[in-house]
Amino acid sequence: MPYYRKMEFIDLKTQQDRIRDNLKTRFDRILDHGAYIMGPEVDELEEKLADYCGVKHAISCSSGTDALLIPLMAWGIGPGDAVFTTPFTYVATAEVIALLGATPVFVDVYESTFNIDCEKLESAIQNTISEGELKPKAIIPVDLFGMPARYRLIEDIAKKYNLKVIEDAAQSFGASIRNQKVGTFGDVAATSFYPAKPLGCYGDGGAIFTDNDDLAEKCKAIRIHGTTTDRYHSELIGLNGRLDSMQAAVLLEKLTIFDEELGMRNEVNNFYRKYLNNAQYHPKDYESSHALFSVVLGSNKKRDNLIKRLKKNAIPSVIYYKNPIHLMNAFKYLGYKKGDFHVSENLSQTIVSLPMHPYLTEKHITSIIKSLKHNE
Questions:
Q1: Do 227 and 291 fall into the same domain?
Q2: Does residue 165 sit in the same domain as residue 190?
Q3: How far apart are CA 105 and CA 139, in angstroms?
Q4: What is the pLDDT of residue 375?
Q5: Residue 222: inside a domain, yes or no?
Q6: What is the mean pLDDT of residues 34-53?
Q7: Mind listing the pLDDT tens digit for each residue in 151-167?
Q8: Is residue 4 part of a domain?
Q9: Are 302 and 176 members of one domain?
Q10: For residues 153 and 92, what is the distance between their CA atoms, to the nearest angstrom?
Q11: 278 and 234: one domain?
Q12: What's the first-to-final CA gap in the chain, in angstroms?
């Protein structure tokens, strides 16, 4: 593989070189048939995505955010309803709940996997029921950094309290638990095809996965302004959530090398872990898609020192996530305060993500490791 003078945090250039010729062929076809939105490439993509995950329905949409929002709309979730999720994730997970007038109820995460803590989840549900102000309706676990959440326990809890489950698989497409693919957990799953994701397009895009026929039909209608047979007569309140044919073409070509790239990501992960013991925990029988490789430092000062050292050596790094959602200004109205979610808050002060993509070489990683080992 080529060795770039400038190390990339996520290297889309090398990947693009592999698929460029086939992409041009697909783009030419789109220019010829002129169906720029929801064209035949979208149908082909949905079929291949469903087959890959092993579900009946894959419904493409315009972003990972819409992939979360649309099922909530289909279920009629709104004011007075509680939806449980984690504060240690990208804001979109909580944002879609708030947009519908429902209330995000945050639950802290495990120190090991950074995913939702199932014991705390059940406590939060019980507390919400006891308080009697909100009606628990759904859980949105997040597969953080590519690692699936504990769906066996989550689904048991959901069944016990009659709650829906949306798997937020924005970062985990391609991952699995005991050979069961992400996209098949809960009632419905949502993923993102943002360019930085393991499977990403060259713009925005997303997909919804479900085996429920009725839910699939509602989601398909909602993504096109709530229409079914007549595009000028809305049966439901919907939105403009369609996928462009060009983005579908990109995803189709990337799918041809996706499993190979997952294997390469796993090799990079294994190489990192030969030298680092402060990374996200990888449970037995869980396969991550390794969207990010994140390590936890002992303090905020140690993290700052490491970032400076990496930068000095031209090694990129990013903090995911430096602001837990419950402390963001947009969510002040919920009444949470500092100290409410100790693990999430501590992670936000001490975590940093290192370069992770299929085209990292041993030379790249060795230079990263040297910078880490010299961090004092």
A1: no
A2: yes
A3: 9
A4: 52
A5: yes
A6: 97
A7: 999 999 999 999 999 99
A8: no
A9: no
A10: 24
A11: no
A12: 32
- Residue 1: pLDDT above 50? no
DSSP-derived letter for residue 7 is: P
- Predicted TM-score (pTM) of the model is 0.95
Q: Do 232 and 276 fall into the same domain?
A: no
Q: Is residue 344 part of a domain?
A: yes
Give me the CATH number covering residue 277. 3.90.1150.10
229 shares its domain with 324? no
- pLDDT at residue 205, as a whole number: 98
Residues 251 and 275 in one domain: no
* pLDDT recorded at residue 39: 95
Cβ pair 254, 19 in contact under 8 A: yes
| Residue ending a domain, choose from 255, 286, 304 | 255
Mean of the pLDDT values across residues 85-113? 98
Tell me which residue has tokens 């100790």: 342
Cβ contacts of 191 within 8 Å, gap of 6 or more: 64, 67, 169, 170, 172, 173, 182, 183, 197, 199, 206, 207, 209
Cβ–Cβ < 8 Å for 141, 167 = yes
Q: What is the average per-residue pLDDT within 256-261?
A: 98
State the total domains in the chain: 2
Query: How many residues are there in the chain?
Result: 376
Q: For residue 125, what are the contacts with CB-CB under 8 A and spacing of at least 6?
A: 84, 136, 157, 161, 163
Residue partners of 304: CB distance under 8 A and separation at least 6: none
SS3 351: strand
Q: Are residues 212 and 289 in the same domain?
A: no
pLDDT in tens, 305-336: 999 999 999 999 999 999 999 999 999 999 99
